[in-house]
Amino acid sequence: MRNFDNVKTLNKQALFELLSQRVNIQEAKLSQIPDPLLLRDAHKAVKRIAQAVKEREKITLIGDYDVDGVASTAIMVEFFRQIPYPLEAIIPNRFSDGYGVSPNILKRVDTDLIITVDNGISAIEAAEICKQKGIDLIITDHHTPSDVLPDAYAIINPKLSSCTYPFEEICGAQVAWLLLALLKKELSLSIDMKYFIDMLAIAIIADIMPLTHINRALVKEGLRIIQSSNKPSCTIIRDFLNKKTITSEDIGFQIAPRLNSAGRIEDASIALEFLTAQSTSKAFELFEKLNSLNELRKEEEANATKEALLLCNPNDKIIVVAQEFWHEGVVGIVASRLVDRFEKPAIVLSIDNGIAKGSARSIGDVSIYELIKANEELLLKFGGHKMAAGLLLDAKNIEIFKKAINKSASYLAPEHFLPSEDVVGVLPFCEIDFELLDILERFEPYGEANTRPLFLIKDAEVVKIETFGKEKSHSKVLLREFENEKKEVELILFKNILQMPESKKLTCSYRTVKNEFNSKVSVQLIINKIYNY
Predict the structure, then answer these.
(1) Which of 245, 301, 472, 517 has the highest local Cβ count within 10 Å?
(2) Is residue 227 within 8 Å of residue 182, measured between CB atoms?
(3) At how many degrees (to 10) do helices 67-82 and 256-265 cross?
(4) Residue 230: alpha-carbon gap to chain centroid
(5) Which portions of the chain are predicted below pLDDT 70?
(6) Cβ(321)–Cβ(356) below 8 Å
(7) pTM of the prediction?
(8) Which residues pair with 515 in a beta bridge?
(9) Beta strands in 311-412 (DSSP E)
(10) How big is the CA angle at 436 (ends 435 and 439), to the nearest 5 degrees?
(11) Which domains are delineated in the chain?
């Protein structure tokens, strides 16, 4: 049980001041986006792409199968469509091709120039093959570079130590977009770079980039575009969400998982076709397919999570579990579920033919990338960033790796592992109203580094608990702040059936959202975490 003695009681005015302080430090305007020429190799890359366009060379784009990679690819496809110029766009299939620009992919590519988006920073072998074939390779990526870089024509990555771009926490789609802004100038094109900001916003949110500085400005503008654009994908997203105001959380929890499901379960080209669809009917058809794939993804994930929980050692600092034939497309989500359950970093591996392939997710201030890197001699391949990574190893090395990474983690201070879930304060029930929603809306968008405020309810009296939903898998909890008080509030706990606590008391954190249903607007309180249950 955590000690909440120091948590302050807030009123709406105090909350407004607290959020104002937080956002004033973070706010930027679109006009303040740093010059893309500050990205190392950007000028060199643009000159080479412009030359390829002018000389009608074959240009091949290689993307990635997550939302950021798909959005990056979609932005490039749309840009070249507007030039117009024929661009071959390939998103590797997770199951048959593996990740990014790889020897596998290069077997079927005959081209003069390859541009990668959201991948390539660890493509040492692929860069060598390109050199041998006389293909110029331009890498655009945002993942953490290792000590050895690929021998490519140009590498554009804000995380390179030699890069002077002042804001390094940008996603792959932003790197691609900034490069295209320079290409527009180089070729004297009249393309409006704002046309792509809806896809940029989706990528920034889905890739959990900090919603500060330019990321915040781009997401704000992107959400505005999604709400008003007649682009087919935007129309379908609006129709699906059926809300007057679309938030970053709607994109993060409703749209991103559907886009991601294509690459996780079948092929990411379905999501790419949706984002670049040229008619609403085509976009609708593709979105229905994404919905179906998302349902399949949920089933696979639920089964794998159930099995993974039985294999966990809760005493380990880093949870490492492996199993034959877990669906490779859901291991990252399963890792996230284990992090939520145990409040520790987790690595989930799927074994196939003696090779373990998996995903890692972290918590608090623990860099899972650095912990994996410290044990790279046991791996065949790895890559990623502080909070998420991918890895490949010989199945016979799993136990050795598990011990080694736990040993590496043992040197970290305990506070590194604390979840950054901090509640902002206790909000008396009388403060929960539409005015509170208005205050919270003023500080949108919420996300990484600007989380939607979490409030605390301490030792509230539980009046009643009911289940709801098609399968009765969610809970409604009716609470009174103090015993015998008349005012009651209802909280929702999704994907969980809550039993009446013995003490009939509840301490939990929750977030406050606007609920729009059947044209009615209400204040909805959603439980985030229960502490004394």
Answers:
(1) 301
(2) no
(3) 100
(4) 25
(5) 1-4, 25-26, 420-421, 532-533
(6) no
(7) 0.88
(8) 522
(9) 319-324, 346-352, 355-361, 381-384, 388-394
(10) 90
(11) 12-24+422-530 (2.40.50.460), 33-289 (3.90.1640.30), 312-417 (3.10.310.30)
